[in-house]
Amino acid sequence: MPSRRQALAALALPAALPLAGCWEKVGLLNPCANAGDPGHRVDPRLAARAWAGLDPSRVLDLHVHVAGEGSGPGEPWVNPAMTSLANPFSYAHFALMANAACLGDDPANWSRRYVRRLEALADEFPSGARFLLLALDGYHGEDGRLDRHRTVFLVPDEYVAGIARAAPERFLWCASVHPYREDAIERLRAAASHGARAVKWIPYFMGIDPASPRCRAFYRELARLRLPLISHGGWEHELVDGGVQDYGNPLRLRSPLEEGVTVVVAHCGMQGDFPDLDSPGSRKARPSFEYFARLMDTPSHRGRIYGDLSAVVLGGRQPGALATLISRFEWHPWLVNGSDYPGPGIVAVMGMKGLVDEGVLAAADAEKLAHIQQHNPLLFDFYLKRCLAWKGERWPASVFESARVLRP
Description:
By secondary structure, the chain is α/β, with parallel strands linked by helices.
């Protein structure tokens, strides 16, 4: 049998190359280096530029995934299809993420290694900078019951809350509650009472139609509790049997906005095409980012609609969208930063050469950043976004002070 590392390279390379555009000499796999390894360095001038004008105590990464593998009801769970070579696409997808998070080959240690690695990466940030850890509820059917066969990952609220309680100076936590559950409102209130700062959805992975009338009571409770909803916007990887991609259409998030919920559109809808729900007679699909822009430009939504910059720098984004996010200065107060960790550690889809070719990143900065990615993907993502510019426009410091959107 091939090792996980060998299988990863064999399975992922054909799929990854069209997306890559990687900086030269980076390679396919995350080397999982550490801060104390020989050669680890962060250019001091680059660091000074990145932190200029920022108070680290106000800096928050709004989008940090937690993962692992356990056997108990309060522990993370991974669908066995994700770790079986009998399902090559799912296996390659999981293996890339496992490599990005430096989990190693022993499933018994995945949960512990994930958290220890995350803690080490976070400790390279100045004191005061924090990270929002995301729970993830499973796929629930129309009857509200958990469907493990269609669930890709499951990360319980109590598990993520425990990590945050152990290191409150670094971590906050975000609950994930499926609105179709019979106990959805009860679980939502419990999460709020235990310190959850927001609620996270990935509609495609969870089987949630955000526009469904059955979600309205849930939205009203979110608004009452002043918990923002961080919901994936755009296309997702095809990992759910019979999953509905259109659940990621940003226009479906009008429903929570209408109920007074603060909505954070994860990834700003940067990937995928969907039908235009405002023109039901049209058969032509439009880029998801156009629908995100439509939400951002709706006056009645102003102050409650935000765009999360997680994964907007990865390969496969819609052409011109990143330059638009940088240049639309009137959007800047409503943009917040997240890394989508462990995403920045997936070397195969980090397209810095594409960023240079697009004109939003200086080639000299790209070389310095590529080195940081090998040691600390969290720091890499933050520094990269602080380096981006389009025709002289950059994201202001407020974009990285993301805690302002969370429940106090």
